[in-house]
């Protein structure tokens, strides 16, 4: 008997995935339009998700992801021992730079942040694990998207590259060239393209010839000097080398799960 998608289940998942990528949340009408389902069909689904606290309704009639979704998602990360390898190197990077370090993977056209080590500085980047951002506007995203062809990027973003800040690159050709330049340099940059006043530097992490994740360091513009830039890039490259060597040396099986669970295949 041929397999067919269970439509009611698919609608629940469509709603959760939509809300996970919406910073301000979505109204009932916006949800129905986005997943192409009548409002009357999704009303009972929305009510059940609210009752079980997988989504939350705010005063503006917008729905956002709820605490139960966070609890379920966190259970997955708790079993990923491989994250401890990343975190050890991220702590080393923070000690070397005094700036925040983040780990992210590519999910569709977004970067999903899996881990973060805070900066000891009083003024620092405000972000959190589980956040998703448009990959083309982040240093981590550029590192992971550098495996894509120009046509592949255009296919991944059929609506174009919408600006997040006034410095976000919105031209496919320019963005592709920037990614290729990053591959040549060995690191990627975000110059206030996702958050005003914040600059990021990133390196991708490869396993079996494919980028599975990337690490970045975020530095406020007023603390960014040429010396700090060089120190940051050196720390990132050193940790990249150590992690990739560890993956190969230990032949870690868990990383296959890590890669297949999140990473989109380049096109």
TrEMBL record:
InterPro entries per UniProt: GAF-like_dom_sf, HTH_MetabolicPath_Reg, Tscrpt_reg_IclR_C, Tscrpt_reg_IclR_N, WH-like_DNA-bd_sf, WH_DNA-bd_sf
GO molecular function, one term: DNA-binding transcription factor activity
Chain segments annotated as coiled-coil in the UniProt record: 226-253
Keyword Ubl conjugation among UniProt keywords: no
Residues in HTH iclR-type domain copies: 6-67
Source organism superkingdom: Bacteria
UniProt-listed GO biological process terms: negative regulation of DNA-templated transcription
PROSITE patterns: HTH_ICLR, ICLR_ED
Domain IclR-ED, first and last residues per copy: 68-249
Pfam families linked to this entry: HTH_IclR, IclR_C
Keywords from the named record: Coiled coil, DNA-binding, Transcription, Transcription regulation
Record's protein name: IclR family transcriptional regulator
Originating organism: Megasphaera hexanoica
């Amino acid at each position: 008997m041929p397999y067919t998608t269970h439509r009611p289940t698919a609608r629940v998942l469509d709603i959760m995935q939509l809300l996970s990528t919406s910073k301000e949340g979505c109204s009932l009408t916006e949800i129905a339009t986005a997943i192409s389902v009548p409002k009357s069909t999704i009303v009972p689904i929305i009510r059940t998700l609210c009752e079980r606290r997988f989504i939350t309704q705010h005063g503006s009639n917008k729905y956002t992801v709820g605490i139960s979704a966070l609890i379920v998602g966190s259970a997955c990360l708790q079993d990923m021992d491989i994250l401890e390898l990343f975190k050890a190197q991220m702590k080393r990077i923070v000690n070397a730079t005094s700036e925040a370090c983040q780990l992210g993977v590519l999910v569709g056209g977004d970067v999903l942040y899996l881990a973060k080590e805070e900066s000891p500085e009083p003024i620092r980047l405000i972000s959190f694990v589980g956040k998703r951002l448009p990959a083309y506007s982040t240093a981590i995203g550029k590192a992971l998207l550098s495996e894509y062809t120009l046509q592949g990027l255009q296919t991944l973003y059929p609506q174009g590259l919408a600006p997040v800040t006034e410095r976000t690159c919105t031209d496919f050709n320019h963005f592709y060239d920037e990614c290729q330049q990053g591959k040549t340099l060995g690191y990627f940059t975000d110059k206030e393209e996702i958050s005003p006043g914040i600059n990021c530097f990133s390196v991708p992490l490869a396993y079996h010839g494919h980028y599975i994740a990337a690490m970045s360091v975020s530095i406020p513009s007023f603390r960014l000097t040429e010396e700090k830039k060089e120190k940051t890039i050196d720390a990132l490259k050193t940790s990249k080398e150590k992690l990739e060597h560890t993956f190969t040396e230990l032949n870690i099986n868990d990383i296959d799960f890590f890669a297949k669970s999140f990473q989109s295949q380049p096109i």
